[in-house]
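Subject: sequence -> structure tokens, single chain

Hey, anyone have a minute? Need the predicted structure for the following. Not urgent.
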Amino acid sequence: WELKNRLPRVTNREKVMLVYKLTGENDRTFNNTQWGEGIEHAANGQGDLCGPGWIHVYSDPFLAILLNPIHANFSNPNLWEADADIGGNDHGLKLGATRCKTLRRLPLPGITLEQRIHFGILCALEVYHEESFVKWARNWLTGENRTEAAAGAAVWAAWAAAETAAETVARAAARAAWAVA
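Reply:
Had a minute. Here:
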């Protein structure tokens, strides 16, 4: 619950001066844009947040690292502190900048496997509300029951619910429990 409570609430068209940018180990992004200390780029703010009209940044360095696998998926990322004008927001997961200047490279924050699991369970709870899964998730998050048997039961309950509920969401919840098991 700690990470969820510390994430800033950023609304569309709000300027945020301090953000975080991920690059590959050669300080380039997938569109081959070069970044480094004092380098600034601009975008027109048009189109989809993942499109060429935006520069992709994060509000928090931990969020940048936790979401790297589903966003950029850099195998050896570099994390930059940056100054940016924010004009787009994907529900707080990523931000779209129309101007971004990388200021300095930061050490990657250490995130344990337990913290990654915690984050994954919180994400699943945002979209999947089946009673037995919620009970298992809350027990895991509080440390009350982290047994393999409990996680296994949550996997099968979520998987079975996929036959009648929103299949994608239920299967994602099942995968989260399976990863813990």
